[in-house]
Amino acid sequence: MAAVNFAQRIIEVIAVPWEQEAAVEYRGEMWLERFIRGAFDGVEKRAGRVRVNRDHDGRRTVGKVASFYPSRDEGLVAAVRIAQTPLGDETLALADEDCLGASVGFAVRGSDQDLDRATRKRAIRRAFMDHLSFVPDPAYEGAGVLSVRTATPQASDLQPLVTPDLDEARAWFDQFRTTRSK
């Protein structure tokens, strides 16, 4: 599950889980594909330039990646800033209800993958991310929303601050002011 922050319009997702196999179409055949930990190392430098779409449709852009976290244990994590549009609002709501998952559009050089044609298994060691999409059925079970960040807390929701030293200093200052004004 991911996080959705409605106030900041941020959705945190596992874009690609590490070492998890998924059945995907590859060159017209079904293969089991997995990403090796670190396959997207360096992608954090592209934050702000990777677009986020709905259903891999480049005409349905809903935002862009604000930050990437390629070193997380669970996989490549992305914080996505969602645009303030009707489709963006719908995306926030669906992500918050756990109705959307993440899917990446990527490219791989032949030398950056291991193919086992006999078992139709593909291990991706290095990939270039083109875009990120929110889809109803991601190929990877672990590619999902971590959080939709909730609205900014109001002052009335916060715990009172405990400041005994400040309280003592204020009391002394108030007493000092009272005695000087007499």
Helix content: 10-25%
Q: Can you tell me the residue ranges where pLDDT is under 50 for at least 5 consecutive residues?
A: 150-158
Determine the mean pLDDT: 86
Our count of domains comes out at 1
Q: What's the N-to-C terminus distance?
A: 64 Å
In total, how many beta strands? 12
Strand proportion, as a percent range, falls in 35-45%
- Sum up the overall morphology in one term: elongated
Major beta sheet summary = 8 strands, mixed
Instruction: Sketch the topology as an H/E string, one letter per element.
Output: EEEEEEEHEEEEEH
Tell me the structural class: alpha+beta
Rg (C-alpha, Å): 24 Å
Helix count, per DSSP? 2
Question: Which secondary structure elements does this structure contain, and how are they paired or packed?
Answer:
Blueprint: E1 3-5, E2 10-17, E3 22-26, E4 29-35, E5 51-54, E6 57-69, E7 75-82, H1 86-96, E8 101-107, E9 113-116, E10 121-124, E11 128-135, E12 145-148, H2 164-180
Identify the notable features of this structure and list them briefly.
alpha+beta, 182 residues, 4-stranded mixed β-sheet, 12 strands, single chain
Structural overview:
Helices cover 15% and strands 41% of the residues. The protein is an alpha+beta fold and 182 residues long. It has one domain (3-151). Strands 1, 2, 5, 6, 7, 8, 11 and 12 form an 8-stranded mixed beta sheet that branches. The chain has a 4-stranded mixed beta sheet with strand order 3-4-10-9, with no helix packed on it. Strand 5 and strand 6 (57-69) form a beta hairpin. The protein is elongated.
